[in-house]
Amino acid sequence: IAHGRARRAPPWWEQRRETLLRLAAQGTPRYVYDLATLRERARALGAVAAIDRRYYALKANWHPAILRALAAEGFGFECVSAGELAHVFATLPELEPERVLFTPSFAPRAEYEAAFARGVTVTLDSVEALQRWPDLLRGRAVWLRLDLGRGDGHHAKVRTGGSAAKFGLPLARLDAFLEAARAGDLRIVGLHAHLGSGIEPAAHWREVYAELATLAERIGTVATIDIGGGLPVPYLPDAAPFDLDGWARDLAVIKAAYPQFALAVEPGRYLVAECGVLLLRATQVVEKDGVRRVGCDAGMNALLRPALYEAFHGIVNLSRADAGATMVCDVVGPICESGDVLGRQRALPAATAEGDVLLLADAGAYGRAMANTYNLRALPAEDVIE
Ligand code: LLP
């Protein structure tokens, strides 16, 4: 079967080579974010009429310029820790608490206390929380995160539903939760499900909405249904972009079937992945047992996704954009682990040499956010292009 190359707009960075090389000269590793691309994604999501509330999952990338740009586009924020809550309000002091969602996993009680004190919307996901903290929860209105019994996503490690995952109240315990809530004077005003990240099946979100809406009708107090994030982006060169128009049509149909609820989403990756690139500098080119490796000044410490999920990020040599002959090589980092490979069997210019600047594409989501100082290597710098 011949797969036609999917129609994708050329990435923003193809037009920004000189700027990126100038930034790289200030030091690598370095993440660079293009706000125009971010706004384009934000406006595309903003135009999906069926959606009433949009929360950006800032775990994907909490750079202040990104948070400010998304707030200006009408986004609220989904936070998972007291640290994220503090950061979002420090960055956006005017932000109304109603625009913030707190959706933690196994967080300590003190973080729930902090969230209630700020007046943000809090999501619970276990009966045990109600049993242990009745004093904290009495009289509150909260959202309930459900596990719909299945997970989905680009890798087993990012699927957040089903019995193997730690997230969400299983449906079998819903009645127990509702009973404990009634006894504890707690009102469920939102239902929430986020079943994974990088989800391909287009029907996923409308199915989640339908399932939650059916349950919400039964519960009777629910005003908002949150169908999570998980929208995919095309990392592979011939992958098709996410069909946002088809998604919008889907959501309009299902929303019309249950119009009494406000529909909320909380995407991270979709908004920021393609607006970010990681710039590295080649350190050494070495051949061993027939494998050529291009080493870089950062690897899994700066971008963990390939090592953790075997995730694919396009790699180009920015310093030799129009070089002719190519070679096949692995692109590796300087970390003392065999898994420190950024890309396998990639085509790079045959002339690639020490000092060249390499660009890793689509690195704006879960890139800098998951960077670490393993081997005592410094965290990557960050720049924003307006
Ligand atoms: N809502 C909740 C409750 C979440 O846990 C997440 C992501 C999101 C929303 C946003 O999901 P997104 O739209 O970005 O798929 N580090 C992994 C992804 C982990 C996602 C964690 N939760 C990666 O690099 O692929």
Automatic annotation (TrEMBL):
<protein>
    <recommendedName>
        <fullName>aspartate kinase</fullName>
    </recommendedName>
</protein>
<feature type="modified residue" description="N6-(pyridoxal phosphate)lysine">
    <location>
        <position position="59"/>
    </location>
</feature>
<comment type="similarity">
    <text>Belongs to the Orn/Lys/Arg decarboxylase class-II family.</text>
</comment>
<feature type="active site" description="Proton donor">
    <location>
        <position position="336"/>
    </location>
</feature>
